[in-house]
Amino acid sequence: TMKNSVPQAASLLLEKLLLLVHVRALPAGSGGESSPPAAPSYYDTSCFKRGDLLEVPRTLFVHFGIYLGENRVAHLMPDILPALTGDRRQIERVVTNKRLILGVITKTASIRVDTVEDFAYGGSILVNHMDRLFEDQVLGSEEAARRAEKLVGATAYSLLWNNCEHFVTYCRYGAPVSFQTDKFCETVKMIIRDQRSVLASVLVGLASIVCLGLAPSTTLPTIFIPFFLWMAG
């Protein structure tokens, strides 16, 4: 019933929030450093063209990148390390979960260039799947690749305003858009509108504080929305 669906929706929402920032489970005993899974260990890059938009679908999210040619993909990843050091050898290592989560909390990221294997992390790859949504806005392949190359380096991170999907849609279509973020926001609105979702609202608020930072825009809704929903109930 509706009472059972609210906690389930809240749980799904929190899971999706973490997956949207590309948290990846690392193998046990890896010590936090990991290489991509062994299978598939090889991607046929001959079918990729410079400027292609690559998507790696996961269970609840999609990771995006722009193919630059020669087995190189530019993609945006939350990462604390570029804010702490200029050592390229350290920064270029595969981003661990610890680096990623700290990057989300501090709103720092990098647009980095990795191999297709490191980018896809063992997942299947879709090529230019979003072109159907931007029929008249697709830029030239070389223009898309050049835009991506110009942006490589440290950047600010925002789950809502500057994530990996914003990066690739700007490069290939000329405008930063994130359909994943839109769906997430609609889910948040749906839960908040339900008067019986006080607990869900608290969880969403706490997740927002963790991921988006401690600020009036996150803290005040966390306190007042559950209060007014409780009063209305």
From TrEMBL:
Pfam families: LRAT (PF04970). The active site is at C164. It is found in: Cytoplasm, Perinuclear region; Endoplasmic reticulum membrane; Late endosome; Rough endoplasmic reticulum. Gene3D superfamilies: endopeptidase domain like (from Nostoc punctiforme). Residues 53-180 form the LRAT domain. It comes from the Eukaryota. Pathway: Cofactor metabolism; retinol metabolism. It is a single-pass membrane protein. GO terms for biological process: retinol metabolic process; visual perception; vitamin A metabolic process. Residues 1-25 form the signal peptide. The chain crosses the membrane at residues 198-231. GO terms for molecular function: phosphatidylcholine-retinol O-acyltransferase activity. Keywords: Acyltransferase, Cytoplasm, Endoplasmic reticulum, Endosome, Lipid metabolism, Membrane, Sensory transduction, Signal, Transferase, Transmembrane, Transmembrane helix, Vision. The keyword Magnesium does not apply. It catalyses: 1,2-diheptanoyl-sn-glycero-3-phosphocholine + all-trans-retinol--[retinol-binding protein] = all-trans-retinyl heptanoate + 2-heptanoyl-sn-glycero-3-phosphocholine + apo--[retinol-binding protein]; 1,2-didodecanoyl-sn-glycero-3-phosphocholine + all-trans-retinol--[retinol-binding protein] = 2-dodecanoyl-sn-glycero-3-phosphocholine + all-trans-retinyl dodecanoate + apo--[retinol-binding protein]; all-trans-retinol--[retinol-binding protein] + 1,2-dihexadecanoyl-sn-glycero-3-phosphocholine = apo--[retinol-binding protein] + all-trans-retinyl hexadecanoate + 2-hexadecanoyl-sn-glycero-3-phosphocholine; 1,2-dioctanoyl-sn-glycero-3-phosphocholine + all-trans-retinol--[retinol-binding protein] = 2-octanoyl-sn-glycero-3-phosphocholine + all-trans-retinyl octanoate + apo--[retinol-binding protein]. GO terms for cellular component: endoplasmic reticulum membrane; late endosome; perinuclear region of cytoplasm; rough endoplasmic reticulum. Its EC number is 2.3.1.135. Its main location: cytoplasm. Transfers the acyl group from the sn-1 position of phosphatidylcholine to all-trans retinol, producing all-trans retinyl esters. Retinyl esters are storage forms of vitamin A. LRAT plays a critical role in vision. It provides the all-trans retinyl ester substrates for the isomerohydrolase which processes the esters into 11-cis-retinol in the retinal pigment epithelium; due to a membrane-associated alcohol dehydrogenase, 11 cis-retinol is oxidized and converted into 11-cis-retinaldehyde which is the chromophore for rhodopsin and the cone photopigments. Belongs to the H-rev107 family. This is Lecithin retinol acyltransferase. It comes from Ceuthmochares aereus. The gene is Lrat.
